[in-house]
Amino acid sequence: MKALVYHGPAQKAWEEVAKPTIRDDTDAIVRVDAVTICGTDLHILKGDVPAVTDGRILGHEAVGTVEQVGSAVKTVKPGDRVLVSCITACGACRFCREGRYGQCLGGGGWILGHKIDGTQAEFVRVPFADTSTYAAPAGVADEALLMLADILPTGYEVGVLNGKVRPGDVVAVVGSGPIGLSAMMGSRLYSPSHVVAIDQVDARLEAAKGFGADITVNNTREDPVAVVRDLTDGLGADVAIEAVGVPATFELAAQLVRPGGQVANIGVHGEPATLHLEELWIRDVTITTGLVDTYSTPTLLKLVRGGQVGAGQFVTHHFGLDQFIEAYDVFARAGDTGALKVVLTRGG
Ligand SMILES: NC(=O)c1ccc[n+]([C@@H]2O[C@H](COP(=O)([O-])OP(=O)(O)OC[C@H]3O[C@@H](n4cnc5c(N)ncnc54)[C@H](O)[C@@H]3O)[C@@H](O)[C@H]2O)c1
Ligand SMILES: [Zn+2]
Ligand SMILES: [Zn+2]
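That is the input. Now the predicted structure with nicotinamide-adenine-dinucleotide docked in place:
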């Protein structure tokens, strides 16, 4: 079969590799029907994720059709259309029993396209198939469903739910990439009074208006702290969500929040950020961090089916599976191409 293989920083190829086979009796082999590229894949290609080594097939998001299952798989069977989640769950360890699948101690967590071969291929081996895949509901298109593999649960759990968004809140989201936009879309479910989108790229801020932002701030030209203070009688945002992953944006989120408010960090950080405790200690601020667990996937599936979450809106570009190199290029140049999520489909 063909797969997108990582060969060290800045090196990748769409090349012939061995088709995966069942290794453990809890595995499934899934034929990939639709797959996408994540900002985290770009981090890997920059060499920021050293656990990913030469020869690894990338990708941690897919919708596909089950081809084969191991003898211990109970609920998934050949022919089933499934969502392959970015988080794999053994289902039995202490953290899985708490719904903290991202921290799985039994061989799960974020492993696809990281510690084991991933979904950017014609076929993928999915460990712990019963607890790591979700039956695809009829009537939801593959590309909409695909947004539930990573970005929607991430924005919702690590942004909206960790940030405890409540009716009437002013929610400031720093970063309007797919993750920030997911957080805006998820915040809207709670009737905030305002969602403020902050980014340095006008195209992203334009997109944010379609995902629930009613105020946009380009922080290369305007001071988001002043905008949010004007909106809140000088107090600050009830919830500030960080969706970039650099020190400046974390520090901005901490400046944006009101006394007693929440800072929810989503961004993956590669270097230390300054925590201004000398200013924060007296303000009763709560700061949360997190890797997505995907415990919200069943809820989000219902919201997508019911039309309350327009998952298909994220998809800006379509490719066939053999156009991975082109798709990576379009996704990596999002500033020029306007890409949010690119989807590659079998026969597409
Ligand atoms: N915690 C998790 O479980 C989890 C899961 C998935 C992704 N992530 C992380 O979430 C972050 C966002 O992901 P994404 O796919 O949306 O990334 P992205 O790169 O597409 O979007 C980031 C946005 O931030 C903007 N930006 C950059 N610097 C800025 C600044 N100084 N001020 C304001 N805006 C700025 C960019 O213009 C861009 O629109 C990444 O760090 C990603 O690795 C975390
Ligand atoms: Zn991802
Ligand atoms: Zn586990």
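Residues 38, 40, 60, 86, 150 surround zinc ion (ligand 2) (CB under 6 Å).
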